[in-house]
Amino acid sequence: MPLCIDSVDRRGNKEQFPIMSLSIAVVTNERNPIAHPGDVSKIASELKKGAKAMKGSVYVKDQRGQAIETPSETTDPPRNS
Question: Confidence class of residue 71 from pLDDT cuts 50, 70 and 90?
Answer without folding.
Answer: low
